[in-house]
Design goal:
The chain has about 250 residues and is of the alpha/beta class. It has one domain: Rossmann fold (3-Layer(aba) Sandwich). About 50% of the residues lie in helices and about 15% in strands. It has a seven-stranded parallel beta sheet, with helices on both faces. Helix 2 links the parallel strand 2 and strand 3. The model has no long low-confidence stretch (mean pLDDT about 95). The structure holds NADP nicotinamide-adenine-dinucleotide phosphate. The site of NADP nicotinamide-adenine-dinucleotide phosphate has 29 residues, from helix 1, helix 4 and helix 7.
Length: about 250
C-alpha cells in the first residue's frame, strides 16, 4: 500500500487496537503520533518499540473528549510537522448495563468518550486538512453500532452515531479532497473483550463464520487500506472487520 501523506494521529493508542494500528501504520512508513490519556509508560514502550524497528513515532497526551485538550494536541502536531495528513479516531470506552438500570450519567459517559471525541477530531481535521486540500480520516466504530446489543444501548448509540456522522463529514470533506470512513470491528481480542464472561465470548464464537476471534492486526490492516492511496475513491463507507459475524 502506498500513502500520499506523511503523518497520522491515532487517539487512544497506548494499548489494544490503537497500539496495533500505530505499529502497522509506522511499518508502512508513516510517522505515527500516539495519543494517550492515562498510561504514559505504555505509550513510551510503544514508541520505543516502533523506533527500534527503524520507524517514526511521537507521543501526544490529551483526553480526546475534552475539546480544548484535543485542539491543543493537534496544534503541537501541526507546529511540529507542518501537516496532519491522517487521523484515526480510535479512543473508546464501554460502560455496559441493561437499559432499565442505566442512568443518564452512564449513557452520557459513553457518548462523551466515543461520539463527542470523534466529532471534535473530525471537525478539527476538516479545518487542518481543508487548508492542505488533502486528508483521510478513519473512525473506529463497532459492529454494535450496526446491529445493537443487549446491555449496550449507550455504546450502540455512540457507535451508530459515529457511522452516521462520518457519512455527513464525508459530504463536507469531499470538496476539499478529504475522505471520512469507518471500520466496524466485530469481536477483537483486547482488554475490552477480555472483560466479557467466558459464556458470552463462547456464544459469539458460535456465530462467527470464520471461526476465530479477530486480532488487532485485522483491524489495523483495514484502517491502513482506508487511509492509503488504494482507497482514493472510497468515502463515507463502512468496512466491516468481523469474520462474518454480521453481514
Ligand atoms: P482498549 O484496549 O480498552 O483501549 C481503548 C483505548 O482508548 C485506551 O488506550 C484508552 O486510554 C483510550 N481512551 C478511552 N477514552 C479516551 C479519551 N477520552 N481520550 C484518550 N484516550 C481514550 O479498547 P480496544 O478494544 O483496543 O478498543 C479500541 C477501539 O475499538 C474503541 O473505540 C472500541 O470501541 C473499538 N472496538 C473494539 C472492539 C473489540 O472487540 N475490542 C470491537 C469493536 C470496536 P486509557 O487507558 O487512558 O483509558
Amino acid at each position: 500500500m502506498t500513502f500520499q501523506g506523511q503523518n497520522v494521529l491515532i487517539t487512544g493508542a497506548s494499548k489494544g487496537i490503537g497500539a496495533q494500528i500505530a505499529k502497522t501504520l509506522a511499518g508502512y512508513g508513516l510517522k505515527v503520533w500516539i495519543n494517550y490519556r492515562s498510561k504514559p509508560e505504555l505509550a513510551e514502550a510503544l514508541k520505543h518499540d516502533i523506533e527500534s524497528s527503524g520507524n517514526k513515532a511521537a507521543l501526544i497526551k490529551f483526553d480526546a473528549s475534552i475539546e480544548a485538550e484535543f485542539i491543543a494536541g493537534l496544534k503541537v502536531i501541526v507546529e511540529s510537522d507542518g501537516v496532519l495528513d491522517y487521523l484515526v479516531n480510535n479512543a473508546g470506552i464501554t460502560n455496559d448495563k441493561l437499559a432499565l438500570r442505566m442512568s443518564v450519567a452512564d449513557f452520557e459517559s459513553v457518548l462523551e468518550a466515543n461520539l463527542k471525541s470523534c466529532f471534535i477530531g473530525c471537525r478539527e481535521a476538516l479545518k487542518i486538512m481543508g487548508k492542505q486540500r488533502f486528508g483521510s480520516v478513519v473512525n473506529i466504530a463497532s459492529i454494535i453500532g450496526e446491529r445493537g446489543n443487549m446491555g449496550q444501548t449507550n455504546y450502540a448509540a455512540s457507535k451508530g452515531g459515529m457511522i452516521a456522522m462520518s457519512k455527513s463529514f464525508a459530504y463536507e470533506g469531499a470538496p476539499r479532497n478529504i475522505r471520512f470512513n469507518c471500520v466496524t470491528p466485530g469481536f477483537i481480542r483486547s482488554d475490552m473483550t477480555d472483560e466479557l464472561k467466558p459464556e458470552v465470548a463462547e456464544n459469539y464464537m458460535k456465530n462467527i463464520p470464520l471461526a476465530r476471534f479477530g486480532e488487532a492486526e485485522d483491524v489495523a490492516q483495514a484502517v491502513a487500506f482506508l487511509l492509503s492511496n488504494a482507497s482514493a475513491y472510497i468515502t463515507g463507507e463502512v468496512l466491516k472487520v468481523n469474520g462474518g459475524l454480521y453481514m
